[in-house]
Design brief:
Elements: E1 2-3, E2 9-10, H1 23-34, E3 46-50, E4 53-56, E5 61-64, H2 67-70, H3 79-89, H4 102-114, E6 119-123, H5 126-143, E7 151-155, H6 164-169, H7 173-176, E8 186-189, H8 193-199, E9 204-209, H9 225-236, E10 239-243, H10 258-261, E11 267-270, E12 281-285, H11 306-319, H12 324-346, E13 349-355, E14 358-363, H13 371-380, E15 383-384, E16 386-387, E17 392-395, H14 403-423
Parallel strand pairs: 5-15, 7-8, 7-9, 9-10, 10-11
Antiparallel strand pairs: 1-2, 3-4, 4-5, 6-12, 11-12, 13-14, 14-17, 16-17
Helix pairs in contact: 3-11, 4-11, 12-14, 13-14
Length: about 425
């Protein structure tokens, strides 16, 4: 009770208690104070992981169908990966390229053994790998005396990275905004073979394409397109680069995405799943092309880092194990069938597309919600999914996804669509 200025008693109004902030929210507030604002993460701090699951600071469990955007190919806390990293950490973490280290040599040998190529260059990320591929293509033409071959063509909706060269090769204007002037010598194509054949000429150093576009909407080239593109590039003397940063290393159900089409590139870029969680990128190329990167022409301090390469060897040990890639293909087909059933039940989906365990649900214009709404609805149900633009829900689970986890994920996506369509 309190007394008013007139001497009468009045009641003090009760104040509504502020809801207590979770540990995740408190850490998210701290992040906002120190990070540049180029990301918009959920207020979810991943504290630990096991298999296909992660836990936040409050102990909430989530089924991870994002895998660090296709990076955590073996899921979380995989025993082979942990053992390899621990063993290497006890030996040496970094050597630079002034000297050799065994893990990098062994990992290069694995890449050569399983691919079209004979030579490997290691770097630290997908963007760096694509930068190296672009530089190699131009320098290859230069060393052959074809100094007019400088043009790099890429395709509509592509995504090749955030560094200036890879950014310019990314044929999505929204990523270019605010960063002009962009480097010269790039052009953009649609997946129309007649237009492609007309564009590629004696000024073209290379054409770069993702066998399955990831960030651009999980778009698969038309049947036969990659084979025809290979023929055109060969006939016109241009190199063909496959950006397998997202689809490579087993995600397609084959070791590399190009193998599904039976079409080999001249240069292939890799990253993401190669290190199972540690930063590493690579390009693979041939004996004929590699000499263009002569001594001093290109480099990177951390490329071929023994720790990252030891992790890459552990990833290969699992990918090479009997039946593993077959299980990825089977799981991918089951996942795709389940997504199609959800689309048929609830509507709002124009297409389910992708390869292996890189899948997308393209929403219709009249769905009544966007991909980000599906992400939130699924997260509220304990499942993490991703987007590929405003109208595509993207699924990139760990390659170890099993039947029980798949059923759990499909159930949550089904419930998310049911709830969203009910409000649409």
């Amino acid at each position: 009770m309190s007394e008013s200025v007139h001497g009468t008693s009045t009641s003090t109004p009760s104040l509504k208690a502020e809801p207590k902030k979770t540990a995740d929210q408190l850490w998210a507030e701290r992040a906002k104070q120190v990070f540049t604002p180029n990301y918009a993460p959920a207020e979810l701090v991943i504290d630990r992981g096991e298999g296909c699951y992660v836990w936040d600071l409050e102990g909430r469990r989530y089924l991870d169908l994002v895998a660090g955007i296709a990076v955590s190919a073996l899921g979380h806390h995989h025993p082979k990966l942990v053992a390899a990293i621990q063993a290497q950490a006890e030996k040496v973490l970094h050597t630079s390229n002034l000297y050799l280290n065994q893990p990098s040599i062994e990992l290069a040998e694995r890449l050569v053994r399983h691919s079209f190529g004979q030579r490997v260059f290691f770097c630290n990320s997908g963007a760096e790998a694509n930068e190296a591929a672009i530089k190699l293509a131009r320098r290859y033409a230069y060393t052959r005396g074809e100094t007019e071959r400088v043009k790099i063509y890429s395709f509509d909706k592509s995504f090749h990275g955030r560094t200036m060269g890879a950014l310019t090769a990314t044929a999505q204007p929204k990523y270019h905004e605010g960063f002009r002037p962009l480097p010269e010598g790039f052009g953009y194509l649609t997946m129309d073979l007649a237009a492609v054949e007309a564009a590629i000429d004696h000024h073209t150093a290379a054409v770069i394409i993702e066998p399955v576009q990831g960030e651009g909407g999980v778009r698969v080239p038309p049947p036969g397109f990659l084979a025809a593109l290979r023929k055109i590039c060969t006939a016109k003397g241009a190199l063909l680069i496959f950006d397998e940063v997202q689809i490579g290393l087993g995600r397609s159900g084959a070791m590399f995405g190009y193998q599904l089409e039976g079409v080999a590139p001249d240069i292939m870029s890799l990253a993401k799943g190669l290190g199972g969680g540690l930063p590493i990128g690579a390009i693979v190329t041939t004996d004929a092309i590699a000499p263009a990167l002569n001594v001093g022409s290109h480099g990177t301090t951390f490329g071929g880092n023994p720790m990252a390469c030891a992790a890459g060897l552990a990833v290969f040990d699992v990918l090479e194990s009997p039946g593993f890639l077959e299980r990825v293909r089977a799981t991918g087909l089951a996942f795709e069938a389940g997504l199609r059933a959800i689309a048929q039940t609830h509507g709002g989906v124009s297409e389910v597309r992708g390869r292996g365990l890189l899948l997308g649900m393209a929403l219709t214009k009249d769905a009544g919600f966007e991909a980000k709404d599906v992400v939130k609805a699924c997260r509220d149900l304990g499942v993490l999914v991703h987007v590929a633009g405003p109208d595509v829900v993207r699924l990139l689970p760990p390659l170890i996804l099993g039947p029980a986890e798949l059923a759990e994920g499909l159930s949550a996506i089904d419930r998310a669509f049911a709830g969203l369509r009910g409000r649409a």
